[in-house]
Amino acid sequence: MSANERDQFGIDPKIIRTQREKIALTEENKEALLRDLFDLIAIDTSNPPGKELQAAELVRSKMASLGANCILQKFAPQRANAICHIPFSQPEDGPCLIFNSHLDVVPSGEGAWTYPPFKPTIIGGRVYGRGACDAKGSLAAMMAAVRLALQAPQNLQGELILTAVAAEETGGLGTQFWLKSRREDLRPSMAIVGEPSGLKPVIAHKGVSRRKLSVRGRSAHSSDPSQGRNAIYPVARLAIFIEELNEKLARRTHPLLGLPLVSANVIRGGVKDNVIPDYCELHMDRRRIPGETRDQFDRELNEWVENMVAMDPSFRCQIEVIGDDKEPVVISPEEPIVRAAVEAIHEVTGQRETPQGFVAATDMSFLVHQGNIPSIILGPGNLAQTHIVDEFVEISHLEQATLIYAYLITRLLGPKRLSG
């Protein structure tokens, strides 16, 4: 067979077409997909505090029943990753495809849910529940795709690794732990990060730096404020500085990611309405685009502190890092994982999507920067459906994601050397 008779990945199109015709979601597959998602949502993995161990054990058990080699990676009390290896023929010689998604979810919050957040509910073709979209829907679809790949009679080679990780919502500790513990792998590797991308291929996302600045003052009776030192006032000035900084950042832009951003999101201070507050803190979130340095936000905050000290030499504050910084990331649209994703999405949805950017930060940053693994974000649901009351994911999106993931397994781990 000549080279021009193969597709861009060196795979015989006729064989791939035949294999794809065998990949279909039966009613049994659809039921298993929803059952896995329901089981995952029903486990409260709100982060903080996390406690993903039970969910990790669930993934390990379900994948082991399919023949995967699974381990639990515990890195803190009640916190663990489920790492599942699915070797095909010639696992050491073929490529390595990594599925990555997270077990933890953000807290359900204080808003009134129409449906209980940890009791998954189907209404109008949607699954409601905390994590349905971010990102247990992606994880359930990845597990379903593994099930399809193992059921379909295909001549696959290499290895698929499903990493169901903990602590993504607070800095990506789970993925970082797995990367540090992973032995050196000289095989070509690539990864798909399951996050709600609207079933579009994402090749870039912003970085994030979160900081807490706190000020200590001196309490006094509010009838004589001069006897105290009000900790709220400097923090209020900081909030105004953050607002003005956000306006300045609008002068910069990135073609895929748009503007860098900064916001003041949590403020705490004061104990009573007639007491001068002796403590106040502000939590801030800085979204960075490629070209902005790792210490960008720290330098901006230090500039504000220097100005405050210039006005009042006695001014003191403390700046703390919240979570782990995630670096902005962008990969080439010509990477094989990107081109394969575009084709798989077109195969399932009929849409030929252009690779795009993602405004949120994900574990893709660690896979690319620390692991040297070309990675994309691709998953069911949309970002607007995450971190909200009555979070949901469309069942049709779950099913399409499952087929896309399954086609990617076929395409990237398919036969590369064909005779005749």
Question: Which architecture of the largest domain per CATH?
Answer: 3-Layer(aba) Sandwich
Category from helices, strands and their pairing: alpha+beta
End-to-end separation in angstroms reads: 5 Å
Examine the coordinates and then state which fold CATH places here, giving the name of the CATH topology of the largest domain. Aminopeptidase
**Main sheet overview:** 6 strands, mixed
CATH superfamily of the largest domain: Zn peptidases
Dominant shape: elongated
Radius of gyration: 24 Å
The number of distinct structural domains comes to: 2
Instruction: Tell me the total number of β-strands.
Output: 18
Helix percentage range: 25-40%
Any idea of the CATH class of the largest domain? Answer: Alpha Beta
Record the strand order, biggest sheet: 1-2-6-3-7-17
Structure description:
- The protein is an alpha+beta fold and 420 residues long.
- The chain has two domains: 3-205 and 328-412, Aminopeptidase (3-Layer(aba) Sandwich), CATH 3.40.630.10; 207-321, Alpha-Beta Plaits (2-Layer Sandwich), CATH 3.30.70.
- It contains ten helices and 18 strands.
- It has helices spanning 13-21, 27-41, 53-64, 136-151, 173-181, 232-249, 296-311, 336-349, 364-369, 395-412, and strands spanning 69-76, 79-87, 96-102, 121-123, 126-128, 159-165, 189-193, 202-205, 207-216, 220-221, 261-269, 275-276, 279-288, 318-321, 329-330, 356-358, 375-377, 392-394.
- Strand 1 and strand 2 form a beta hairpin.
- Helix 4 crosses helix 10 and helix 8 packs across helix 10.
- The longest helix is centred in the middle third of the chain and has 18 residues, at 232-249.
- The radius of gyration is 24 Å and the shape is elongated.
- The chain starts with 12 loop residues before the first helix and ends in an 8-residue tail after the last helix.
- Mean pLDDT is 92; it is low at 1-19.
